[in-house]
Design a protein that fits this description.
- Helix 3 runs parallel beside helix 6 (201-214) and helix 7 packs across helix 8 (277-285).
- The chain has helices spanning 38-49, 79-94, 141-161, 175-180, 196-199, 201-214, 240-253, 277-285, 301-305, 316-323, 334-338, 342-347; strands at 10-12, 15-17, 21-23, 54-61, 98-104, 122-124, 128-130, 133-134, 136-138, 165-169, 219-225, 257-261, 288-292, 329-332.
- It is of the alpha/beta class and 366 residues long.
- It is globular and about 55 Å long.
- Bound molecules: flavin mononucleotide.
Length: 366
Amino acid sequence: MSSEQLFKPFSLKSLNIKNRIVMAPMTRSFSPNGIPTADVASYYSRRAAAQVGLILSEGTVIDRPSSSNDANIPHFYGTAALAGWKNVIDGVHAEGGSMGPQIWHMGVMANHHSGWKPSVPFEGPSEYNNPNLKNGVAMTEADIADTILAFGRAAADAKKLGFDCVEIHGAHGYLIDQFFWDATNNRTDQYGGKTLAERSRFAVEVVKEVRKQVGEDFAIILRLSQWKPADYNFQLAKTPEEMESWLLPLSEAGVDIFHCSQRRFWEPEFEGSDLNFAGWAKKITGKATITVGSVGLNGEFLAAFAGESSQPSSLDELLRRFDRGDFDLVAVGRPILADPHWVEKIKENKTEELVGFSKEALGALL
Ligand SMILES: Cc1cc2nc3c(=O)[nH]c(=O)nc-3n(C[C@H](O)[C@H](O)[C@H](O)COP(=O)(O)O)c2cc1C
């Protein structure tokens, strides 16, 4: 099957991209003291030069004292880090690419294996990262208000530096997702509640603040996941109705594109339909969506962290869903991490040159 349809341009507000392929956000921990280096800039500009439509940066943390658990994860605040990011976006634009930073607060985390710790305890809706790990403090309403403003400042800086869009990290068990999940959000104030809709209040306020800071014409992406690192099969929304109660307020708050994280894009979300998460999000909100998860690979990414290699696989099922209109954009992680030229090889149908993914690729900025 030809992948031609993935090479049609896409425009939405500030975003004008040459094809439908997005580099998924991937933490690399190559930014000492939180400052992206020249090597980080060249890593991204190599992908821009090699026809990646939209690059989403690795998660980059907002201005809260315990937003990160790793000294080598980039900051999105402070003069030096923002100058590093300016260098990144200028390099990407010089190669004709487009990019948005993924702005991130990790919430309550496990301690990093390096032994590095932030100056104050991790913070979240409660002390919990998951039901089996208590390693932080519950945020006060003042902490929450300050965090919302910090997300807004990061988004404003993204626009000021010249990025094409911004992505808010609301997935994978980090801060925003800790508010969504009843196992980590046991609050009795306005940020807690029995329903997913009630526990979405924090995310809604973050999106509204980001919208206020960037204006109407700047594209805002929100990344969400049903699954949690502590429970791969978990579903925040157990029915289409519950998903509606979750996504519609976020859509109304100002999300332009929902980035629907799955480990395997072909897995249906609910019984009785083969629609995946991105398919449902588009059907419910009418907004653009991004799908992701083992596109072009035969093994999923969490197994990759445990050392499992993956081989290239066919794009036919992806293209079938794309043609049906289930989603607008397709994010690709490991294949583009391992090979800056993945998109060009797909475009030119050079399948015999695809390299797959092995964990050695994580050791360097290829
Ligand atoms: C090394 C690595 C780091 C990742 N870091 C992030 C991250 O910072 N933010 C995020 O939302 N997802 C992160 N992910 C998940 C990817 O964005 C993506 O959803 C996942 O790898 C599935 O896509 P793939 O099967 O094409 O690799 C990471 C994945 C990998 C492999």
